[in-house]
């Protein structure tokens, strides 16, 4: 199967009429020039890292994930595919966020904590150990 070539840079106009630019990170997703992503961090295909966000060394972001404005992914953290890290949210060092998770605004997942698949964590919540969606 032929490999699809991904552009090195993309830009578009958002709803506010601002031109937004992104640069491809390695062979993966796209990072705002105003974001700080460690060179060894993995940014999955279809993933976007917004301005003001920070992804630290050894972190891994799955595919089709959105790291919103001013969000932080700590050293060695693992964030799954189809995840939204809300504005100002943080995922601590060594923490795990499974696939299909929504973190609200200013959510804090502490170091080594886990958010299980399909969870929706409300704004301002602090996850200290494990967070699973209530049945």
What report would you give on this structure?
Strand 2 (19-24) and strand 3 form a beta hairpin. The chain has strands at residues 9-13, 19-24, 30-31, 36-37, 42-43, 48-49, 54-55, 60-61, 66-67, 72-73, 78-79, 84-85, 90-91, 96-97, 102-103, 108-109, 114-115, 120-121, 126-127, 130-131. The strands form three sheets. An eight-stranded mixed beta sheet has the order 1-2-3-6-9-12-15-18, with no helix packed on it. The chain has a six-stranded parallel beta sheet with strand order 4-7-10-13-16-19, with no helix packed on it. With 135 residues, the protein is mostly beta strands. It contains no helices and 20 strands. The radius of gyration is 14 Å and the shape is globular.
Describe the SSE topology:
Layout: E1 9-13, E2 19-24, E3 30-31, E4 36-37, E5 42-43, E6 48-49, E7 54-55, E8 60-61, E9 66-67, E10 72-73, E11 78-79, E12 84-85, E13 90-91, E14 96-97, E15 102-103, E16 108-109, E17 114-115, E18 120-121, E19 126-127, E20 130-131
Parallel strand pairs: 3-6, 4-7, 5-8, 6-9, 7-10, 8-11, 9-12, 10-13, 11-14, 12-15, 13-16, 14-17, 15-18, 16-19, 17-20
Antiparallel strand pairs: 1-2, 2-3
